[in-house]
Fold this protein.
Amino acid sequence: MSIFHRKNESGRVPGRRAVAAFSGLALALAAGLGTGAAQEVPASAAAAYEDIRATAGFVPSFVYAFPESAIAGAWAELKALEFSDDTALDARTKALISLAVSAQIPCQYCIWLDTNSARAAGASDQEIREAVAISALTRHWSTVFNGMQVDFETFKREFGGEAAMAVPAP
């Protein structure tokens, strides 16, 4: 059953955007999995949990593993960048970038969610394969450049120098 058709704890089916949003949060929280002793939840954490629930229809269990003192900031960053339509990158591009990074980390949780998020955002199987292949090529050539200690100044000069990479002023 697709994650887009499975009902969550509230009996609702999470929206595609909600599932896409959690790919970044899953990556940010993956290192913090575990459970702690029950204690009073700080107001900022409680507000974040409620906003996650209001936005996505549920709060994934892994979210509670993140430090309560930092969850509000982690959620705000994720919501403003990955979950927002008011950014320079569309949801498909964000999911493909996240998948490429996830493949290199590697993070099985992120790969699974990012692949589904990319498909939900309209990415084709070919685009998904190319994103992963580009990440592999980047890792490959980075290994060659660094392992063989290619001179960075020579490298830049051969590719047009600093001026070739200059970003024009807005």
